[in-house]
Design a protein that fits this description.
The protein is mainly alpha-helical. It has one domain (3-209): Glycerol uptake facilitator protein. It has 8 helices and no strands. The protein has helices at 3-30, 34-55, 65-73, 79-103, 119-138, 144-158, 167-173, 184-209. Helix 3 (65-73) packs parallel to helix 8 (184-209). The longest helix has 28 residues, at 3-30.
């Protein structure tokens, strides 16, 4: 496998979560209205996902350990590639968040104090991750960028967790005490819910939708 695929996973995930956290900080600086802040965050995330998935299409554009894990289960990538991608995605997300912090004059590492906890939030992350993985698996590959960007942009609003749906991003976002942050104490629960949702989506796809 060409090294460009590994670099793509690091850079793509880094830019994605730099955009997620950076747009949240910018929106907080411009407005005290949480609905406006969330709208800006969702719009920027939509565009970031769309252009990053499209731009890295010829190399590698997973940017999410749950997605990579499901592709491993589906025998599209090896266990080795899954492990390497997951590490690169996680370090990429952390790097992107730290860069966003620096750009907006914050400390490079600020552990988030934003609590996201509760059975409803846990369920929300299962639903968010299930939907993301399921629609990736059943969609026309040529339209993946639009499918993923549209789904996550919508899920910012119809899930109570604002649809993290990405363990790498969840880990990265605990390092910014801003709108898009998450308290480190909540990270494990989010990651468990995301993995569960991804596996559930894969099982339903495999037994009811897979054609070969």
């Amino acid at each position: 496998m060409k090294i460009s695929k590994y670099i793509s996973e690091f850079l793509g995930t880094g830019f994605l979560f730099c955009a997620v956290v950076g747009s949240g900080i910018m929106a907080e600086n411009l407005s005290n209205d949480n609905s406006i802040i969330l709208l800006i965050n969702a719009i920027v995330t939509f565009f970031a996902l769309y252009f990053l998935i499209t731009a890295f299409e010829s190399f590698s554009n997973q940017f999410n350990p749950v997605v990579s894990f499901v592709l491993f289960l589906n025998k599209e990538i090896s266990l080795k590639i899954f492990c390497i991608f997951s590490l690169l995605q996680t370090f990429g997300a952390i790097t992107g968040v730290m860069i966003a912090n620096i750009m907006f004059g914050m400390d490079i590492i600020e552990f988030s104090e934003k609590n996201r906890f509760g059975s409803n939030i846990f369920l929300s992350e299962i639903i968010a991750s299930f939907g993301l993985v399921f629609f990736i698996l059943i969609s026309n590959k040529a339209k993946i960028a639009l499918v993923v960007a549209s789904y996550i942009g919508a899920a910012y609003w119809f899930t109570s967790s604002t649809s993290f749906a990405n363990p790498a991003g969840t880990i990265g976002r605990m390092f910014s005490n801003s709108f898009a942050g998450i308290n480190p104490e909540n990270v494990l629960y989010f990651c468990i819910a995301q993995i569960f949702g991804g596996i559930l989506a894969f099982l339903i796809y495999r037994y009811f939708f897979k054609t070969n």
